[in-house]
Amino acid sequence: MKTKKALAALGITSVLFGSVLTGCGNSETTAAKDGKSGAEDGEKVEVTLAGWGGNPSEQKLLQQTLDGFEAKYPNIDVKLEVISDQYMDVIKTRLIGGKGPDVFYLDAFEAPGLIETGVVEPLDEYVTDDFDVSDFEKPLLEAFRVDGKTYGFPKDYSTLALFYNKKLLQEAGVEVPKTWDELREASKKLTKDGVYGFGAAPELARTFYIAQAGGGDVVKNNKANFASPEVIKALQPIVDQHNIDKTSAEPKEVGATWGGEMFGQGKAAMVIEGNWAIPFLADTFPNVEYGTAELPAINGEKSTMAYTVAYVMNAASQKKEAAWELLSYLTGKEGMETWTSKGYALPTRQSVAAKLGYDKDALRGPIVAGAKYATVWAGGPNLPIIMNNFNNQFMSAFLGKSSLDKALKEAQEQANSEIKQK
After folding, report:
1. Of 90, 81, 141, whose CA–CA distance to 111 is shortest?
2. What is the dihedral of CA 136, 139, 145, 146, to 10 degrees?
3. Which family does it belong to (predicted)?
4. Structure pTM?
5. What DSSP state is assigned to residue 273?
6. DSSP category for residue 245
7. Model confidence over 303-324: pLDDT tens digits?
8. Per-residue pLDDT for 239 more than 60?
């Protein structure tokens, strides 16, 4: 627990958490390090695992993974709790009431804000050499480290890659662009007959890495900094491509809900999406012939975004030994291989990605390659506020209703005003 303001941001008081955290002693940590499950003389222990829902195939894979865990640890039963709506709100409310799950999902985007309240257990003391921390893709692991402590191990991820329609590029005589300048020129040749060269996603979660490519910082000292000259200069080409070149569009402008749908409908020759688009296109638009590539370089440097989720432990759990056994299995090589075996999710461990062949897969290979240099979608406890204000005003500039510098200055002032009032 760090500040009353941080706790207040979650609706939590220090008094409440003082009672919630009572009883979390060193003996539990020692037992976990000794490899004990938390059950004595074969007594069954039940640990709760909470996460949001997935599609039926993903839920089946998760259950298969949990079955494998329970077979290996017969004295531990796992109670899976699927929170379908308002996941973070529900988790925070349960943590306040002392009824939080033992292990739960935590998105890197939300991690800093929750970690600073003290409700997430540091995991470093539980880790043994055979867990092989060095096997994780480093940027993904670093997203859950604060002040030198590790609060979660990433269970899966996706970076962004360039999805391109092979037929449209061939007909236009266009090579797959390797730089952003090439992408902009290619888009001009590809925009015709109701098809845009590029399907844009004008939001911070997709443009964060571009915004910082010129040396600027979107977030600085936990405050919004996206109105800096470096960030504006980096983002201006996105606005200009839409408003001057008229070779890009966002999904809603063509009646689509997101980039994958826009691409599948043939309304954009190129889009930037993640691993989630591959099963979607296979199921919904199986006749589209497409390829993927690492994102075009910016200023000669490779860059992309990464989105990742970790398993974390409730600091108030009374079953820390068993909770660690579960967490370490799910993020270990055996459990991760089962969970990611069908490609719906990508393994955060390099060895598992290689064993399953994803690093050499024609479609997933470029997505996996980006993990080593990706910018993770995380940026301190105030990123949610910063994101909301950025998105509101950046869209205005993207649609030509305001200049980019004016829009971002207004958004930055509002964001920092809200941060100050926290």
Report:
1. 141
2. 170
3. Belongs to the bacterial solute-binding protein 1 family.
4. 0.89
5. E
6. I
7. 999 999 999 999 999 999 999 9
8. yes
User: Is residue 275 located within the same domain as residue 229?
Assistant: yes
> Whole-angstrom Cα distance, residue 214 to residue 179?
14
pLDDT above 90 coverage of the chain, percent = 88
H or E element, residue 370: none
Answer yes or no: do 58 and 99 share one domain: yes
Cα separation of the two ends of the chain: 16
Domain range for 352: 4-158+307-376
Residue 29 pLDDT > 60? no
Tell me the pLDDT band of 54, cut-offs 50, 70 and 90.
confident
- How many domains is the chain built from? 2
| Contact (Cβ atoms closer than 8 angstroms) between residue 371 and residue 306 | yes
For residue 10, pLDDT beyond 80: no
Cα torsion through 207, 212, 216, 222, rounded to 10 = 70
What CATH code is carried by the domain that includes residue 399? 3.40.190.10
Distance from C-alpha of 111 to C-alpha of 267, rounded to nearest angstrom: 36
**Cα–Cα distance measured from residue 35 to residue 30, given in angstroms and rounded to the nearest whole number:** 9
Q: Which residues are registered as beta bridge partners of 162? A: 272, 293
Same-domain status, 203 and 222: yes
If asked whether residues 274 and 363 sit together in one domain, one would say no
Nearest in space to 407 (alpha carbons), one of 399, 209, 416, 421: 399
* pLDDT value at 5 more than 80: no
Q: Report the C-alpha gap between 106 and 327 in whole angstroms.
A: 12
Q: How many CA atoms lie within 13 A of 345 on its CB side?
A: 27
pLDDT of residue 162 exceeding 50: yes
- Identify whether the C-beta of residue 386 lies closer than 8 Å to the C-beta of residue 117: no
376, 392, 407 — which closes off a domain?
376
Residues 194 and 101 in one domain: no
Longest Cα pair distance anywhere in the chain, in angstroms? 72
**For residue 31, pLDDT beyond 50:** no
Residue 348: CB partners within 8 Å, gap ≥ 6?
A: 136, 137, 140, 141, 153, 154, 155, 156, 157, 308, 331, 336, 371
Question: What pLDDT does residue 6 have?
Answer: 36
Q: Is the pLDDT of residue 41 over 70?
A: no
Residue 337 sits in the same domain as residue 317: yes
User: Tokens at residue 417, please?
Assistant: 């005003």
Structural tokens at position 105: 């999902």
Write out pLDDT tens, residues 185-205: 999 999 999 999 999 999 999
